[in-house]
From TrEMBL:
Name of the protein: Uncharacterized protein
Domain of life assignment: Eukaryota
UniProt xrefs under InterPro entries: Plakin, Plakin_repeat_sf, Plectin_repeat
Leader sequence segment: none
Keywords: Phosphoprotein, Repeat
Cellular component GO terms, alphabetical: cytoplasm; focal adhesion; hemidesmosome; intermediate filament; membrane
GO annotation, biological process: hemidesmosome assembly; intermediate filament cytoskeleton organization; wound healing
Amino acid sequence: MNSRVDCLSNTILKFLHEPSSNAKCFHNPNNRKAMYYCDLLKMCLFSVSSKCFLLPVGERKISSPSAEKSHKISVVDVKTGAEMTSYEAYQKNCVDKATYLELSKQEFDWKESTCFESDGNSFLLLTDLKTGIQFNIEETLNQGRIGRELVNKYKEGLITANEFGDILVSSSQPNKDLNSPVAGFWLSETNERIPVLKASRKNLVDRVTALRCLEAQVSTGGIIDPFTGKRYSVSEALQRELIDDGCAKQIQQCELIFTGIIHPVRNTVMSAVEAMHLNAVDKEMGMRCLEYQYLTGGLIDPKSHSRLTMEDAIKNGIIDAFTATKMKDEKSYVKVLTCPKTKKKLTYKEALEGAVFDCHTGLRLLDAAQPMKTGISRLNLQSSKHMCISNFSHTGISLILMSYSHHKVTHCNFFSHLGNVLFFF
């Protein structure tokens, strides 16, 4: 009898710890989307009064992740209606440190690594393995966002990597970069920032859309790493695997629109329009690059790299009046991009308008959606009467449906008793 119980327990544990190999048996009550239980928990709020997880139901979804919020709102005081991040709740003594760290682990997984610059100097990098957000510790220190005492505490082990990461996130509030092109993509399911090339390889976005986004980046200053917000030349981006050889060949000319092209006779920097007239740059690609610049804040002078109004661009010979008039006509914009979420055709202007500003870099990100996948269960748990019990955590988690429109809290078919969570299939 005991051996049978042990065998059953091991099977259940395997099922719980390897959800990707099993069917999604739970449903999001807001949209009926199939989910794993662990993903359902990530949507929950933690009630400081009852020490339970609450699942928001209704129109107000304050726990929904967003690229524009530095943290997911994950802690709530039902009595007062106060909403906090797990770090804020810890600072206000609403939760103890053990509870805070457990809540923080659900959102972030910070790891330290040592990196080397081209000159051989090393620096510490703190990376969240879940979202891809990165902080150069020395750089953040030099910017005055944190103090040396805090860094010393972290290095001495007085605060954990997750606590240090939460502090870095809370201290990082960049302004929205209104001149930003689409810097990358954002997955709401995982709260993950994804570079353009990686998004293409994961089939989150089609190859043409990816190339157009890279063209816009390089023609406005360089290929962007959405984790840090830094820009790189085509050659540097290739080394950092932000692009591949195929991308590099197709966007090489776009870089010349930004850096400038030397006239073969005068030995001076030519404007993009002049370069197109001399066939030094492909005309169709050159026009796209000028359009990217215009839509992200103004044409860029290749000599000074400063943004110019259309009138100043005409005066400085960057563009002629006929081309400028054509570029101002929004009806001439071609729908060359495909929205990674709705799959509708978009102009680049529409993509910019539909993007969100990342709270960590201030740059624009396009919301994307994971390709549909079908899970196959390894366990034969087809009956709706099956259930298993697992001790989830020391806090005694209870999954509760919370209706914000009426401020009522009601239990659903998931419930807990003495720290155990019952899973129904």
